[in-house]
Each structure stands twice: as C-alpha cells, then as structure tokens.
Design brief:
Elements (H helix, E strand, L loop, with lengths): L7 E3 L2 E3 L7 E3 L24 H9 L5 E8 L3 H8 L4 H4 L3 E4 L13 E3 L14 E2 L2 E8 L5 E12 L4 E14 L5 E10 L1 H5 L1 H29 L4 H8 L5
Antiparallel strand pairs: 1-2, 3-4, 4-11, 5-6, 7-9, 8-9, 9-10, 10-11
Amino acid sequence: STWGPLSHRVEGVRMTPRALVFALVTLGFVGATATAQTIPYCEDNSKYNQTLESQLLASNVMSAHIVAVQVAVPITILWNYLAVGDLPAWNPLFNTLGTPTEFQLCGPLTAAYSNGAFLADVLPNTPVSAPHFIVQLGCDEAGDTCGLGYFFTVTIQSTQQMVVYGRHTYQLYNNGDGTTTFSSFEKVAGSAVEEFVEDWNASLQESLLDAVSGALCLERLYQTTGALNSASVASSCAHFAP
C-alpha cells in the first residue's frame, strides 16, 4: 500500500489513523531552558520576552493544550516544508498569512485565524494591538528536533493594558525509523483568559484539531507522491478532513 505505516501514536496511546486525544497538562517543555534549547531562539528582547514566557508557563489560569501525532514522513522532508511558512496551505487554523519574506526568526507572524468565532464575544470590545513574533525557528545540530514557535500579546490600545499573552509551538521529533512525531503546544494567560476560560479552551482545542488534520494530510500527500511542495499541498490539503 502507498499509505505506509499510518497507525499513529498520540500522546503515548496507540491510535487509529483518525483518532485524537487531547492532553490538557501544564508543561514547560517549549521554554528556552527546556530540552529544545539548542533550537534557535529569537534574541531580540523586544520580540521575545523570556520573563513573560516564564510567567505564562507558571500560570495556573488554564492548562497548556498539547497534542502529538506520529506521521510517516521523514523529519527532514517535513521540516523543509514547514520552514517555508506556508501555513494556510496545510493548517485550517490559518486563513491568511503575511508574505514569505517575513517568515524568519524574530519576524512578525501576520495571520488571520479561523477559530476567532470562539473568541468574538470575549475579547475586549475596543481597539487592541495583537503583535505576533516568531521566537523559535530551526533545528538542533543533529537535526533530530525542530521547532516553530510564536509568542503573542493582546493589548488595549487606549490604556496599554495587556489582557492576553500566549505561545503556540509546533515541534518535530525524529523517531529514527523514517517517521516523525509532530506536536502542537499552545497556552494562554491574562485577565481576559481568566474571565473566559471555557471559551479559550474551546478555541485552543479547535487549534489542536486543525494542526493534526494538517499533519495527517501532509503524511497522506507524502506517502502518495514522495514529496511535499507548496503547489501540491495547497491543492491537496486545503479542504482535507481526517
């Protein structure tokens, strides 16, 4: 079969190809001091505030949301495609993204998201600033762990009050057998989160579903064609449902 080994391991549980399990746990594995510390991080303090990230990881307002799935794509192939920044082509979370020239370490992540319906009634009903910056991008020296992470804040423009801050990270781990563990981590905190935890949980869980749907489509495409490129991903994965 051209589909290859499509039984997936999700968060330590043997799963069928279309099964999901969410792990709502509090971890600090995405921080610069964690096991992925050899992955390049943004060193511009105006873009990546390590103190704020430490506060995020320590926050007990809501748990981190994490999902991991094993895909039958070598890590080199998968990372070389993900590093292009073509997120809307494979991940339903992203409706649009800024120009490819912006997709670099410390660069802005200018995106429009599809899960905004969950948050439309809970974000401040006043103009806000919501900058997103790519704070982690690359692989370790061995090429066995790769990461793409961005940090964001939401600030009320009139008062400069920060009401939300958070991080979303995609990490890849080489399983050594031609497969890769793809994980998505997301956590948010702040006063607007504390007031509407249920809505934020729904939004982040939708984000996890989108990440796994996209990863499974990339696997399907690679198993069928032996490659991943922007044109084929855009035509195959835009409306893929596992």
